[in-house]
């Protein structure tokens, strides 16, 4: 398992990655109400597929990470994301999105270090 986290102001995000043999499941959650908002899955030679639950917009995060992950990771992957802040501002949404994508980049760095 890989565990990463970031904080900025009232925003706190956690990324946990679990290995399933050669594959990986990535969970990104945080804010006041962690939830399952969007799931993006794929593999190096497969198209990326996203399931957006209700009107959640975390696909901006999951798809950005998926594009990067499929270039570096040989196995199948699923990225699940859900973070909610009460009374959020546009700036906080931008910061949260940037933080989540940075966590995805850090995950890829960890995978490289492990030669996966």
Notable traits:
116 residues, alpha+beta, 33% helix, globular
What is the percent of helical residues? 25-40%
Percent in strands: 35-45%
- Strand segment tally: 6
Radius of gyration: 13 Å
Q: On the 0-100 scale, what is the average pLDDT?
A: 94
Distance between the termini: 13 Å
Structural class: alpha+beta
Number of separate helices? 2
Order of helices and strands: EEEEEHEH
The strand order across the widest sheet is 1-2-3-6-4-5
Largest sheet at a glance? 6 strands, mixed
Indicate the low-confidence ranges by residue numbers: none
Task: Tell me, briefly, the overall form.
Answer: globular
Detailed description of the structure:
With about 120 residues, the protein is of the alpha+beta class. The chain has a domain at about 1-20 and about 30-40 and about 75-115. It has 2 helices and 6 strands, in the order βββββαβα. It has helices spanning about 60-70, 90-115; strands spanning about 1-10, 10-20, 25-30, 40-45, 45-50, 75-85. The radius of gyration is 13 Å and the shape is globular. The two termini are about 15 Å apart. The mean pLDDT is about 95.
Quick summary:
By secondary structure, this protein is of the alpha+beta class. The chain contains two helices and six strands, in the order E-E-E-E-E-H-E-H. It has a six-stranded mixed sheet, covered by helices on one side.
Set out the fold topology.
Elements: E1 2-8, E2 11-20, E3 23-31, E4 38-43, E5 46-52, H1 59-72, E6 77-84, H2 90-113
Parallel strand pairs: 3-6
Antiparallel strand pairs: 1-2, 2-3, 4-5, 4-6
Helix pairs in contact: 1-2
């Amino acid at each position: 398992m890989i565990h990463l986290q970031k904080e900025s102001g009232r925003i706190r995000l956690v990324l946990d990655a679990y290995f399933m043999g050669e594959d990986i499941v990535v969970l990104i959650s945080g804010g006041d109400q962690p939830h399952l908002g969007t799931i993006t899955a794929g593999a190096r030679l497969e198209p990326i597929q996203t399931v957006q639950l209700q009107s959640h917009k975390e696909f901006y995060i999951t798809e950005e990470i998926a594009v990067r992950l499929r270039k570096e990771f040989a196995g199948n992957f699923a990225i699940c994301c859900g973070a909610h802040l009460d009374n959020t501002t546009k700036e906080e949404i931008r910061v949260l999105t940037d933080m989540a994508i940075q966590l995805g980049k850090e995950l890829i760095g960890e995978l490289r270090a492990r030669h996966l």
